[in-house]
Every structure is written in structure tokens, then in C-alpha cells.
């Protein structure tokens, strides 16, 4: 070998060497990041058994797909159909997520299967922690789904992420298939696998499943599972439940019959009594006996773990054999029997026993069903009972068994040895994983189960967990395993792959001979399959290109160059509403002149002008989906809703069902020919043009919950899941409804009514429990009485969803713009206030022993986060510079600039306690509406990160005082004095103590004290109101906002919009009463642009669906179009340069006397309310244009 060849060889071997240490070091340094991702996943209640939580499950699948996209995967979400819900309707199944990383034909391809749905969980079931809040206790991560199966799925994703992050080539091609219905039978997945076997699975060599656990502390490889046949045995007798004192002894009770037949299923010694079941069990071979004997398994620890003194078998081999390779019968419960606390002397008319039989290889579910049914019928017949027995099998999952000597398992042994330094146990699983058998039967691929869950993780049980050790070391195991699999020789691949190599052709279907004809047939078949695969990948690439374009169509440079392109003239009154069509090539507008105009926005010309037939102002226009932009819907102040044919220029339907002004129309692509309206009569109506052209039905009547004075102002449909509707009305609460649940409830009510089914005190709810959720800025219910006294009205003027449907944006009239996270919901921070004051002696190092830090009650997950991060004040140099700039702005009393700089730092360093504490101080100094509540949130966050944060603790007490939580403020201050005795008699502490005690003894303040009464906080509105208990409960369960956007003013009109700008919702835009519109960065909440959009008021802002293009309107009778202007263009005269002064002026405007605001809107200049100029002085030429039409 010459020197050049030697160098090339060394370079090649160096590049191809397995960089295990480098990879695992990355895992170690990113441990907290990986755990934080798991925390977010566990927080999603993806319970597949509860149809009411189906939205959470859909969001979980979206999060999974997004995570895979972020690390560079080619991702698809495959629709697998619908399922029947308990009330007979159908409900969409969660989509299956597939992803692919690399497609090198010279490498092996593995497919990783996992699921992200979970079993039901409630705190009251016996959990020591909140099941959906990941809690770290002594190195164990507790939470539903932590081990089954979210952590293993994430460990595999992190495995690929590590390779990508270090720019190390994956040793094999990796595919993922992740579902959301495993816990309830993997509905739709079998069909999907069958459909994809020659597409997605065509190049897969091996399938890996990590949905199981170790047997002991020693790692394990799993090569078999049992199946599961689940039965319902129903015994039905009298036509209704009977009183045991009246009828007992005179009837043969169904429960007695049921217990009698259940007693015949299994003997006291555990022997199954059903003929034919035990005979199907294979004999235990000597080799298998030896394997069991070598497995690490502690009988005493096993008994201790499950809390039993005696087991069915006394030796390890018998116990493991009966756990893994023998069938078992288990009785799970009886439906229809009385099971609540207390006593009830009733004879149930119908009872249903639920039991299952775990099958082993050689047992077929169809055979088991026949054996069980015939046996129970014969037992029941001997009882000679007049009752009726019905036996049904509801689940029939087959067992799975692999060859533990396959190279896949040898690779697993090598990976375990490398990571854990020991040989793994080869085990079988007593539970059922049906998908393994499906993969085996349909694809013919070799399968291995590679678990990382611990033997004591408590899958399906209370206090499910996974240890930090297993999660992190398991990720390293997967990294090592991919390397080991890459060394498996080609001949070990599945015979059903597509490559026509010599060692596979003799085994491939259709290629059983080496004849010329057979070879051609095989290659032609694979050529066809490859064309199909190429077409599929081309579609994926095109979609990704579109996603890329949409993601980057609104960026910082474009926002900074945004300017006026054109003014569309044609209306003669205020333009109250705008709407783009789906393609974005048409723009509709509605006006006080009662006309609707369809514009060509790119040529700046009118296409259609038509009188809508309305007799008053038009407030809403909408294109009807799937109508080729031919149908336009309008709602107006004349209480009417009209439907127009734009081609014929005529009104084809007129609805007159509302009794007050119609404010908004909403449509949804999933509901063809259907739309909804919201009106000031408090009614949300639904229209279906297929059923009736003259009538509509009431979907939601807010007057049932909020009194006759309630007015519905706005509504929106979730673009990702069209079954969810947001509704805004007067008052601070925004409501989110599940339309399907409402319809299904109405249908069941109608059926029960027609059947004559009634009960005493029957209360007919128009909206079922669980169909509604409320959202509110946590401080607004408390401030409402003060606002009412100052005639400051709170009303949601606009609601909209983010493009991905995971966030809800609300423009709150009389207040600010708020963004609510629909995935990671959080309760208002007032629920985290101290419940009692802890004596100083109980406090150690800023913590108390019962989960209370600094006297502030925090979720355990927050406390654990504090322990993990310690709220480190160390920042990278560039963030340290930002912090110093913020501190300098603070020192110069430039509060808003300081807040924006601290927010910018927190966007990059979200676990820095010092930045939270400093931003809280800036909020408290600025004192805009809601600032003290944001400061309270920041103080709590700072304390959760650093329990010893002195200033954050003191500021928290001050915030509580300013927010009128007087008693809580005193408790917090007392805790502060106990924890920091050196500060107990400082001037600041004495001054606050004096203020608090003065407030406590003040008659006015004592009557307004809200301590310890959450119901008062959330429904203390008006003495004239009579609020039902259901409404009170929903308000008390409201969720708080994630972000707040300040600077605009929204007090004059009730149609002012706020919208997401950018297909990913990167920016927030809102109109304002000062004639401007404001643009914020969504994540930092920082104000980035203010433009003058109207002479008086900007009401409407509708971003284009695909471009950086914005349409606005307001009091002026024009539509304005905005886009990024050329860099060569002259200075943009519409830019408001002094954004902070404009925002300050709007804060003064919102808190001004209503008479002053009214005069201002009539055209009078009011000193101090100008939005132009530093302080709004008399020298400023800031006269507002006269309002040309009546404001709402």
C-alpha cells in the first residue's frame, strides 16, 4: 500500500469510526434539556380512552411531528379514519406520524415504533403527585406516560438528534412510526400498516419496539409477549333495578348468576377450568428452563413490590413461566353493580363482568372466543335461571414470539454490554403489545423489543415513573444499538426487502427460482414500487418547500420595511370587516354603507360591488369554504345574516333569527355548507344550507349562563381541529367549546325525550359537562369591580387561533391583547398564593418540608426545577450585554425599554432567576394595566428557580398588596421577615408593613378583601346578575394567559381585531384607537413596529395567508394594503418612530375619563392623550381625525 493510499485509508477509517464517547458526552450535557422536553410531553393529557380528551391527543401527535421535523426528518401525518364514540357518533382518530432520516441504499434501515397516548390518570386515584406534571423525586421522574411510552419515544428521537447535532452520519437509515391509540387497541393502525407495507416499509430491514420494561435492575431484551382476549359477560334480568327489601328472595338476581359463572372460570389454585385452554401450552424445553434459571429475579423483592406475602408459585422458574408462557384468567370488574362509598340496597337489573385471558403461542383468539362462549353458556344453563346471558369478546390480540438467537438480539447484547457493562436478560413479557404481531404478519420483518423502562416503573398504575438513569442511559443504549445494527451482515435482513441481491432473491416472494422470467418479474415489481416511493417522496419534498416558503414569508427585515402599498377606494362609510379567500387572490370588505366589495388586491381594483340587502352597518364578511369563492356571507347591525351568490350578484338566503346586532360570522373547511354567527342577543347560531335556507339552530345560548345582558361579540373556529369554537363576549372570560360534544349531547337529549326517559329533578343542560373551557387573564376578575366603577368596559372584541391551532389570541376591549396556550394550560397565578403562614423555624434554605417555598405554594414540578437549575445567574457574554443594557435602561427610568431587553434575554435564557426578578422590578415601576400581575408571575418564577431570591420575595409581597390581596401580602411579608431577619426592619419593609396593616383596618379595603375565596375572585361581577352554579365552576377553572401584548388602545369600538402575522404566527398585530396598528414579536412580546393606519381608529387587520401582505381598515372609508417596501423607497412617513411614547399615550387614553374619550372621538383635542410626541404636549399637532360613524 503506497503512502497516499495509506493516508486515504486512515482518513476513511477515522471518519467511519464510532464516536461513542463524543455522542454520549452530548447526552450528558443536554440531560436537563431532554428532561424538560419530557416534562412538556407528559403535560399533555393524551388519554386515548377518553373522547373528551381527543383534542389533547391530536395536539400530542402534532407535537411529535414537529419535534421530528425540527431535527430534520421527512415527516408525514397519515389519516387512519374515525371511530365510533360511546353516544353513537363518529370521532376522528389521531393521525399516525411517520418520519425518515437518511435513505442510503448501502445501509441498513431500521424502523422505530412507539406510541404517545396514555392510560387514564387522576390525582384522586391514589397518585402522590399530579399525574400530568412531571415530578422529580430522588432521581425518579413521576408522571403518566413517563415510562409508557413517552420517555422511550423521546429517547429514540434524542438519539437521532444527537447524531445530527454533532454532524455525525447515522450508521443506519432510521424511520419512525408513532401512533396515538395503542392503549385502546391501535385503532386504524393495522390497516395503515397493510397499506404502507410496500411503500413506507418497503426498504425497512428491522423493526424496533421499546414499549416494555426490564424484569429486574439488569437490562433486558424482550423476545415474546402474550396475547389478550378481553370478554364482557352480561347477565340481564328484571326491566329495572329493584329494592332488595321489597323484591329480595322473590327474584333470581342477575348478580348472583354472574358471580356463579365467574367462579367457574378458575380454581383456587389458579388452574383455568375452561376446556381446551391449558392444552394449547407448549412444553417447557430444557434450553428454556436454563435460560429462565439464569435470569436475575428476586422473589422477595417481587413480593415486597406488589405488597403480597405469598405468591402462586414458590420458585423462580415456575413463576416466570406462568407469567410469560402460560395463559391466565383475570377478572377486572363488574359494571352495573353498586361501587360507591356508603350503602345502597338495590338489586341491579343488569350486570356486566369484564375479564380477560392472556394467550400464548399456539392459541388463536377465534378459538379462544368459541371455547369461552360455549363453556360459560353450558355453566349458565345448569343454573336454570330465567335471566339472559350474553358473552362477547371485545379484544382479540395475538401473542408474539421472536428468535432470541437472531443477529438483532446479538446486536442488542453488544450494545447493552457497551453501555451498562453487563449481559442482558433475555425475557418475555406477560402483557400484550398487539402491534408486534401485526408487524410480523404483515411486513415479514424481524422485530426486537429493546426496553429502557425499569421493573418498578408502575406502567398503567398510580405513580408511574421512569428513572433519570434509565432515560438518559437508555438514550446512550439506543445510540450504541444503531451502531451495532449497522454491522449485521446483509444475509440477516428480512427476505421481504426490495433489493434484488443474490442472497435474497431465492427467498423473496415471486423470486423463488433463478429463472430469467422470475428475475424480470421481481425487478419489474420493484421498479413499480420504486416509482411509487419516488412519487411519494416528491410530494413530501414539495410540501416541505411550501412549508419553508410560508415559514419565512414574514421575517424581521420584512417587518422593518413594512409600509403602505395602496389605498382601495370604493366604500362611502367605515370599513368594518375584511376577509381573504383561501388562496389569497381575493379580498372581501364590508362597510357601514351596507355594500360588500370583492377586490383584486394585487391589481388594486374592484371586481364586484353589491348591495347586501342589509339595512344597517355590516360587521362581518366570510367566504363559504368549498364554494369556489362564489358564496359570501354577511352579518350586520340589522340583526340579519345574508348569503350572497357573487357570480349572480344576488342575495340567495336571508336569516332573521337573531334579535340584536350580528357581530361575527365563522366558517370551517371541515363543515361544508355550514357557518356560525355571534350576535349581541347572546346567541351563537349554526346554519346548514343543506338542511334549511330559512332557519338556523341555537348552538350556544350565553344568556343561560351570564344573564340577559350578555352580548356575544366574536367567534372563531380552530383551523387545525374544526370542532373547536372560541367565543368572546362582554366580560373578561373567553370560552372554548367542543361543537361535536354539544351536538352529540343534544342528540342524546332528543332521543331520551322521544323515548320518554325522565328522572326526578331532571335538569336539561344545553351544553354538557366537559364541552366548555374558560380562559381569562388572571388579574382581570379581581379588577373588574374597579373597572366598572370607572365605567371601563371589558369585552372580547376579537378571538382567533394560531395557524397550528395550539394558541388562542384575544383582543380584550378595555385592556390588552392576550395569548393563551391551549396545549400547556396554566391556572391563574392567584391559585398559587400561600394557604397559611409557616413559622420561620420550618424554613430551611428557602424551602419548607411540605412543598412550600418562601411561603408561596408552588407545584412540585416547579420546586424540582429550582433544584435542578438553581436559577443560575451565569449568562453567555452576549446575554450578559443585554442584561447590562436592560439595567442601564432601568437606571434611567426607561421602564419599557428595560422590560423589552429583559424579555429578550429571557427568550434565550428562560431559567435565569435574576432576569425574572429584574423584569418584575421594571413592571412594578412602569405600573401599566396588568404590570403588577406580570410582576407577580415573574417573582413566582424567580422564586421557583432560586428560593433564596431576596428581592423577588419582597417584590412578591408588594405585588400582592398592589393587586388587593391584602391578607396574602401580609403572610408573604411575614415569611420574608422570618427568612431574612436582617431585612425585617429595613425602611422598605417597614413601609410595606405599614401600608398593608392600614389597608387591613380600612373599612373599604376590608370589604373588598378577597383572601381565600376563589369563587369571589372569579364571579364577583354585578349584584344584578344571577350566575348559575355551572358557570361559576367554569369560571373558577379558567386558564391563564401565556403572553400579554401592551401598547395599543382598545376602548372605543367593539370590533377591533388582533391577529397572528406569519404562517407560524411569528408576530402579533392589533389595531388601536389612536389610528395606529401595533406589531409585536410573539415570543418576546416586544413591540417591533407601529404604523399609522387610519386618521382615527384601526379596527381590522387581516394578514394574507401566504405572503407578507396585510390588509387594514378602520373609520376611513378605504382599505389599506401594506407590504415590505423597496429599500430604495423614500422614508416611510407612516412609521411611528417613538413607539414607547405612543404606547404610553395609549395607556393614559385607556385610563382617561370616559367623557374625555368621547370628546376625543368627536374630534376634540385632549391634552395628554396624544399618541404622537414624547409627552403629548400642547405643542404637538396631534389632533385626531373626527370619527365619521357611530362607534360600538
Q: Give the termini separation.
A: 88 Å
Specify the structural class. Answer: alpha+beta
| Backbone CA Rg | 33 Å
- Percent of residues in helices: 25-40%
Overall pLDDT metric: 83
Strand content: 15-25%
What report would you give on this structure?
It contains 34 helices and 50 strands. The strands form 14 sheets. Strands 1-4-8-5-9-19 form a 6-stranded mixed sheet, with helices on both faces. The longest helix has 36 residues, at 516-551. It is globular, with a radius of gyration of 33 Å.
Keywords:
globular; single chain; six-stranded mixed sheet; four-stranded antiparallel sheet; 1192 residues; alpha+beta
Compact summary:
This protein has 34 helices and 50 strands.
